[in-house]
């Protein structure tokens, strides 16, 4: 079963990409990859805007697509999106868990 961070990411991406929630992370990844491939074909500008809003590193994206040019672009991009969203969820969790000390307390 996926951990709580992954479930949060799945909920966020489900809303953003209009996808259904899945218990199986691989099934969700396949669904997201299919949606990304559809956007590549039908609405590339929307995909670029989504990647920009999610803040996927452009250099990392280009390098990944170049290094794995024989693999499905949708799966590669989906993996990068999920990794980025997971890092943001973990950063938010860590930030909430920091206790103010000394002069930092209000």
Task: Give descriptors for this structure.
mainly alpha; globular
How is this structure best described in words?
The chain has helices at 4-17, 25-42, 44-54, 58-67, 73-96. With 106 residues, the chain is mainly alpha-helical. The protein has one domain. Helix 1 runs parallel beside helix 2. It starts with a helix and ends in a 10-residue tail after the last helix. The mean pLDDT is 90.
Strand runs, count? 0
Main sheet characteristics = none
Low-confidence stretches: none
Shape estimate: globular
Mean pLDDT figure: 90
Class from secondary-structure proportions: mainly alpha
Total domain modules: 1
Oligomer: single chain
Ends apart, CA distance between termini: 40 Å
Q: What Rg is obtained from the alpha carbons, in whole angstroms?
A: 16 Å
Strand content: under 5%
Classify the helix fraction into a percent range: over 70%
Number of separate helices: 5
Element pattern in H and E: HHHHH
Q: How would you summarize what this structure contains?
A:
The chain has five helices and no strands. The protein has 106 residues and is mostly helical. It has one domain.
Strand and helix map with partners:
Blueprint: H1 4-17, H2 25-42, H3 44-54, H4 58-67, H5 73-96
Helix pairs in contact: 1-2, 1-5, 2-3, 2-5
